[in-house]
Amino acid sequence: MPQKMEKFLQIAPHSLAIVLAQREEERPAAVSHKLQHQHTGYEIFADFKAENMQHFWNKKVTDAISDTFFLGWIDEHVLLIQGKEDHLEVLREGWMRRALKPPRGFEIKYLGK
């Protein structure tokens, strides 16, 4: 009997991949292209944290966001973060409820392990 393939590949323990898409803004294409290349993965992560730290009415979300760390930036659209598993679960729930905000200029396409 063939073995069942794993559905997810875990890159790092207690990590979460946030797959982003560049939001098409009302700017000329040349300006938008130039701005996209000025951002580093860490800057995008810092903006993601800043956007979501404004959940002052939801202490679980602010605690979860404050305890996450930048792990990496892959393929210019995947933000890898690391944190406690219960905090990552709070972020997953927040995304399913459409309460998790993307970094400026992006939208969250989906989350992965």
TrEMBL record:
GO cellular component, one term: cytoplasm
Spans through the membrane: none
Highest taxon of the lineage: Eukaryota
Gene Ontology molecular function terms on file: RNA polymerase II transcription regulatory region sequence-specific DNA binding
Entries under InterPro entries matching the protein: STOX1/2
GO biological process, one term: regulation of transcription by RNA polymerase II
Protein name: Si:ch211-51f19.1
